[in-house]
Amino acid sequence: MGPSVMFLYRQKDIILIPFPFSDGATTKRRPVLIVSCDSINQNAHAPDFVGMMVTTSTRPSPYRVELSVGSLAEGSLPDQSSIRCDKIASILKDKAIKKLATTNDATFKAVLKGLDDVIGRSPEQVGP
């Protein structure tokens, strides 16, 4: 991605991209929540952003944040979905297809708590 290409998306946005499977060799077109900070997202010299997989799977997972109509500040998703806080990837910005929605602050806070759980960070380590 060259410096002349602008990444139009921000932290908390849910965008459509080809998300990599764990094997790294294959992808599936799916929504992804952008979790990287906007100083990275808007930096033309940083080719990647950090995203979490959004899924319609109903399989139980302790690291899942359910999305409802009230979870979004704007936009919508076609199906009932959840964010998998344990499915994180660094993704090339130029793979972005389009914006679908933006999470609200409460939902994003729940996602960050889910990330803390994934990496084993306790509330005492997080601070106020």
What does this entry look like structurally?
With 128 residues, this protein is α+β, with helices and mostly antiparallel strands. The chain has one domain (13-107): SH3 type barrels. Helices cover 18% and strands 39% of the residues. The chain has three helices and seven strands. The protein has helices spanning 38-41, 105-119, 123-126, and strands at residues 13-20, 27-34, 48-55, 64-67, 72-75, 81-92, 98-103. It has a seven-stranded antiparallel beta sheet, covered by helices on one side. Strand 1 (13-20) and strand 2 (27-34) form a beta hairpin. The chain starts with 12 loop residues before the first strand and ends with a helix. The relative contact order is 0.25. The model has no long low-confidence stretch (mean pLDDT 90).
Supply database-style keywords.
128 residues; seven-stranded antiparallel β-sheet; 7 strands; SH3 type barrels; 3 helices; alpha+beta
CATH topology: SH3 type barrels
Please summarize the sheet with the most strands.
7 strands, antiparallel
* Low-confidence segments: none
Backbone shape: globular
* Average pLDDT reading: 90
Q: What is the chain-wise order of helices and strands?
A: EEHEEEEEHH
The proportion of residues forming helix, as a percent range, comes to: 10-25%
The spatial strand order of the largest sheet comes to 4-6-3-2-1-7-5
Task: Tally the structural domains.
Answer: 1
Which CATH class is shown?
Mainly Beta
Class of secondary structure makeup: alpha+beta
Estimate what percentage of residues fall within beta strands: 35-45%
Number of strands: 7
What distance lies between the first and last C-alpha atoms, to the nearest angstrom?
37 Å
Question: Number of helical runs?
Answer: 3
How big is the Rg? 14 Å
CATH architecture heading:
Roll
